[in-house]
Each structure stands twice: as structure tokens, then as C-alpha cells.
């Protein structure tokens, strides 16, 4: 029908027509105002503009049911428009006509259903229509209630579900603050609806039919429950059919979300525990979620049941064992079965953990959580987030920062105090001072990362219903108000070396040998993401929220006495450390929260010895090694975390109880325990006095020496520990850094060469030298050539066991000024041996200094040490040991160097040399730390211990 035809239909409607033609016209009008077609809104406006509602309302007075039904259908569709609804009621008095129709046809299903629909459409626009209907035409409300009540007794299907649904909807939209009391107490709406709930609840339990009616009943109850009117509960419990509230638990799966909302609203006004079927509802959810298959499938029903169960536990009154039953063990079991493959599963995990956290003031529920191994479950969740921690993998791309901006962060910020230099960790500052700095840092940068609510019961699920008004605003659960934006990646691109050109002197050791060894293999475009780069930014953000919830829940269990064993496991602690990579350093307070949790766990002495007997402490210590340049904020983050944890362990270990426990195990423990302890003591003991007692008095050093000597898997660990002990704890200086070039060496003019002596060597070669020059530089030759020996009168003297090349070099250096020595190492060492043999002290010291300064390296140490022993001079012997222990080289090179040293066949001598050097520095009351005081004149030489 075209627009012109519709105008003609409306015009003909205004003319007087017989009943048959009127019906035909009304049918044509109804076709053009179908509510399902948005285009027909214009036609509805035309009806109002042309004043055709007058004829339509008047047609309700006819005796033809068909005409009445069509007119009611038209009015029902038109009343969806607020202006049309106003005209129908105000101008044409349709309420009186509706009331008369209900009186004329009290049992007619079709007419009653259409009138109920119109009432519902009217009341959804403005609250005043509900008040007008109840005040002016209460008979309509009375009839709706009576009609629904009578339908309860109807068993032959005379009343359709559609009519019942429209009646329930009308009663739902009639309610507001002004009409609530009269609807509940005067008209008995909830009693009638309760009877319907009982009837259709029983039908649904048996045949699963009548679900649409039940859904509308639940919507009505939810609307009424929002007004916190206690007689509503009383009315529902006192229906003619019995207590209808108990049926909420029986129809729970029809609309679990709305049913739980009803219960939670009624809980705020209930006066008796028996008012609401809370235990039964808990049991229903438990029965559903106890099926492992539904957890594995994780369909919408499973997700909704989990959320509903958590929502019920939001109310403190529901956190009693007699009400919630086995809900806590069930939630832990569900949490254990949830993987982190989708965002929905992660969100459910967050919700469950948040719910468990709210039970922290209920000792019985906390005990239930512990009995269900909640800490183990949380540990598994952290593993799913960060991956395996055995071995600990914190590889990442360097965090690319522009030089000026990055410097501003660390130089102008208070955080610069915490940029820990591990080489200075043993300076005079005490552990208490360091911890005060860390505590000060916490207070200076901590901020609330998740908005909370003053009333925990208001922190409900953010559910909205399209057919019910929204409830009061609620805080968003588990939000993060920090730098966890979607575009954040915990690992960044590599540093551009052109931004920070650093010149490196030739021959100088790199302060970060790990970087230099890998620099040729690293490319900004092709470097493979190894650890935290596998998730998208949105997944990182939601996993970060999960980490924070886990951290908050774990803080609850720290207060339990006796301490929970699982809290101090290396896997959990390393997983927490690794999870800090999901947050941006140094802006995010989440990192501080994680470190604070680790601090509280490590503060208990119960965890000290178990952690010392694991690989936790070495793994944490190794985190401090910078993988990239000094501008990588992620490297500095792990460096700070490592230093903070080591300092905390040091404080605990150096207390009376801590050092007593360690000493007792070293003296009375089994061999395995002793070995495990000595391999970590140097990492965490910072007090030299305590260190000496444990290593010398309690036999820790001897155990280390045995491990070093044995060709076992623990040998490499013992090497690392000995290096930490020597360099970080005892302050043994690197010979390359403290040795100075001996200055008292000058060449001499040959002068008169008439006094020449010739030396005959073992190979028959002859070498000539100035007799006077030799005598001035060597006491040996002075006595040999000028004394009472027969050689003093000989022109050719036999020198046994002397190499031609070595002697020629020595004679050349005597004649000239020593500027630069460029000979092979073996010849250099042989010349030193000749200087020692011929008592040329100045030259020996000078050449030895040259070796210390320029020739010590991982490749040459075995050669030099072997020469020292085989030549029986013991020169450079201790220096080789010192360099092997304290040189700043990567672990692989150090292990290879020690392997070559042991391959020399002097294992006993090597181990004894290391032991004597360590004992010497342990027993010194005061030793000069050259690195600390920057004094090159102190301890310029490592004096021989022989």
C-alpha cells in the first residue's frame, strides 16, 4: 500500500462505515503500523496528526470481537510512541474503554492479552502513567492480578502463555517507588506471581516447558527486589501454594544471572537466614560446576555459573560454611582446570581469585583454601603466564630509549637511588640503610592501581539487562590505572648503537663481556623474541591484571601461622620475579607490589634454609647481569629486583637465628646439605665476620675446595661461588687493575766495548755482552765476572739451561731503554726466569708487571701458571689465581679457563693456592679496597703467600 493509499484509508476511517467495512479498514491500518517495521513510524505519526485515534478508540465499544482485537492491536503498536500514548490516554480516555472491555470480556484470552500489552507499553514511557492507572483505574490492576491468579488453576490451556507473559510484563512496568507498596500489599502482585512461579517452576522441572513465562517472572521479581521492601519477601513466602522463594533455586538455570541478582537484592533487607534459599542456590551451582566436562568445554553456561557463584560470595553473609557449602573448594578446583587460552578464561580466573581474596577475614574459609592447595594452583597459573622458570629465562629485547629522555628518568627521579651497582654492594653502607631506601622508594612511587569500592558487596559483576533499569553505578572490577595500556609491550626494540657511541680502549676488558660476546649475533630487525613477546598487547594487559590479583591473594596467606610451605618454593618466587616483565619499569607500582610480596615471604626464617638448598639464590643473583647496554630499562629492572632480593636474604641470613641455623647445618648436617649451603653462602652473606665464621670455623671453605677438586656437576657451581666470594665479598683486586709498571729500569750506554764476555749456550751458539753493563745490572754476573770464580778470567763462559732467544732479548734490553715489549709469551716468561736466576730484580719486577698488565687473559692464565710451577720460581702464581677468580669475564670463558688449569695436572697445587689466597683475605683485619677508594698506590702488588 502506497503512502497515498494509506492517507485514503485514514480518510475513510474518519467517515461513518458499517461494521464489515470498518473491520477491513482497521486491518489495512494495522498492516501499516506493524511494530516490527521501523518504516511504519511515519504512519503512526500520521494517525496521530489526523486524529484517527478517536475513531480507533471508539471502535472498542462495538460488540464485534474481531474489530476490538484489531483496534487493540493498532493501539498497542501506536502506544510504543510516547506522544501517541499521551494522546490515547489524555485526549481520548482510552483507560475507561480498556476497563470496560475487561469487564465485558473477563475471560477472553485474546482481548485480555492485548489490553495487558497496551498497559505495559503505556507504563514503559513515563512513571506517571503507572500512577494514573493505579489511582484512576485500579480495577485494571485488580483484573490483571485476578486473571493471572485464576490462570494458576487453569489446566486445560484456556489461558495462553502469551497472555500470561503480557500480564506479568504489565505488572513489572507498573512498579516504581510510589506504586511499590500498593502493588505488593494492596493488590498482592507478588503473591500471585509467586503462585505462577510455583506452577511453572514445577512444569519446567518435569518437562522443561514454560521457560518464557519463568523468564518474565524472574524479570518482574528482579525489578521488585531492587526497591528493598521487606514485605516483598513476606508476600512471596506466604502464597496460597506455599513458599515460592524456594523455587528460585529450582529454576536457577533458566536465568541464573537474574536469579542471583534477586537473591543479592533481597539479602540486603532479609531479617532471617531462612528468608532466602541461599544454601540451595549454592548447591545448585556446585552440582553444575562439579562436572569436569563442563569446565573443559567452558561454554556460556559454565562461564555464567562461575560468575554467579562468585557474585553470591561477594556478600559477607554468604561466606559461612553452612550457607556456601563446598563453594570454596569447588572454585579452587575450577580455577585449577581453567587454562589461559582465551580472554574469557582469564577473566574468570581473575574473578575467582578476587572472590577468594574477599574471604581473607574468615579463618575457616582461608583454612579451606589452604587445604585445597590454593598456593600450588596459583603457582601453576603463574607458570601458564610466564612460562617455565627452570631454568629462569628472562631474555628480552633491549628497551630502546633516547639518551636525554632516559637520563632524565634516572638522574632527576628519586628512583635513581635504587639503580644498584652490584660491584659496590659490599661498601660501608649497612643493609638497614639500603632497606630504608627501598621502603622510602615504595612510599614515594606507590599508587593505587585498581579502583576499589567502599562496600565490597557492591563490587558485583557488570551485568546489564535490556528489559530492566540499570542498578546503581558500580566500580569496574580489577581495573589497572597505570601504564598498562594496550600499546605497551614489556620488551622493546634494541638500542641503536649510533645513538650512544662508546669508545673502547684497545686491550681493555669490557665491563659487560656478555654483550660483547653476542653483539655480532644481535640485530634489531632479526632478533628473535624469546620470552615475553609472544602475546598481543591486549593479552599482556589482561595477564597483568591476573598477576596482580594473584599477588594480592598470596599476601593473605603470608599472615598464616605456621607459614605455608608452598609459599617459599623457588618455582613460585621465580615465577613472581619473571611476571614483573609484564609491567613497565620504573613507572608501574605493580613491580613494587610483587617485590613487596617476595620481601614478606623471604622475611620468614622458615624459608631460608630450603631456598639455600635450591637453585633459587644463584638464579636470582645471575639476573643482575646486564644483557644489553646500560640504557636498557628492562635489564636495570631485573638488576634492581635481583639486588633487592639478595639484600633481603642477607638481612634474614645474618640475624641470630639465620646464621645459627646455617652454622648448625654446616656442622651437623649431612654432606648433601653442607654442599648445598656452601654453594650459596657467599651470595647472601655480606658481613665479613659472619662469612669468616661460616667458611673457616664451620668448615665451609673446605667443602668448597672439595667440590672444586672433584670432577662433578657441582664443580662449575663451586667455581662461580668462589669467584663471587673472592671479588664481591673479600675484595681481592684484579692484578690487571692494581699493578703498576716498575719505573726503576733504564738502559745503559755500552761505552768501551773492549771488555766483552762471550756466553756459550747448550746449543753451541755464542752471545757477546758488555762485561761492565752486566755487572752493574746483575749481582749474579757481578760476582761471576769480577769475583774469585774462574769465570772472571775467561773470555768464553758456558751458561747451561739458557735459551738463545731469551738471553739475546735480555742482553738487548740491558743495552736499551725498555719502551715496548713485543715478543711471544713463552719467551717473555723465559726472560723473567733468567732475570730471577741472574738476580736482576729491577728487570724481573718490570717484566712481571708487564705480564700482569698486558698478558693476563683467560687464554694465557694456564700457560703462565704452568710456567710458574715448572720453573719453580712461583712468580705470577698467585696473580694467576687472583685473575682467574676476579676477572670480569663471561662464565663460559671462566669455566674453560679453569678446565685448562685442571688439565695441567697440578690439581692439588691449584686448589691449595686458591684456598690460601682466600684464607689470607679472610683473616686480614683490614684490607684496602682499591676499587672503592680509587687509590692505585694501595696494594699495588699481590704479595706472595709462599
From TrEMBL:
Gene3D superfamilies the record matches: Leucine-rich Repeat Variant, Potassium Channel Kv1.1, Chain A
Annotated ranges, domain BTB: 755-823
Region: Disordered, residue numbers: 444-530
InterPro entries recorded: ARM-like (IPR011989), ARM-type_fold (IPR016024), ARM_ARMC5 (IPR055445), BTB/POZ_dom (IPR000210), SKP1/BTB/POZ_sf (IPR011333)
Comp. bias (Polar residues): 444-467
One GO term describing the cellular component: cytosol
A biological process from GO: anatomical structure morphogenesis
UniProt protein name: BTB domain-containing protein
Origin species: Tribolium castaneum
The gene coding this protein: AUGUSTUS-3.0.2_02427
